[in-house]
User: Fold this.
Amino acid sequence: MTWSTGRGQMHFFKWLGVGLLLCCGVLGGLFFAAFEKRRVVQAEGFLRLLRAIRVQIDCFSLPVSQILASCDHALLRDVGACELPQSFPDLLKSTRLYLSPEICLLLLEFAGRLGTGYREEELRALDYYIARLAPYSEELRRELAKRERMAWLLPPALSVALVLLLL
Assistant:
């Protein structure tokens, strides 16, 4: 049995390659849009978590481990926690952060300070970190629609351009 490399088979492989390139473009857009949405959910989740920690410290003066243990599981899932953390640094270590490096450093700085001061110091620190995280979260939310449109348009358009170059 011999393989014939006739013209019909070459067209099949050519169109198969075109289809695969177009699928890669669409899937790339899908993954990019999901990544952008995940960034927004995670930023808003951390903001809600910091606000919840602030309320718990202000009203009940609970230690951080009890606050995290009493947190809503959906909130912990939004920040990316797979398991119940014992401390805020453990939460950050077990979480894949989709945020900007500046915000990641801010959260690491907060994790180092949390639980090391008196109640008033903790509340002032939480107010500071909430004030720093809130504009970032709002900016991500505002840009989400634009970034999702770009995610759905740019990778498929690039794959179409590549197909046109190769044909």
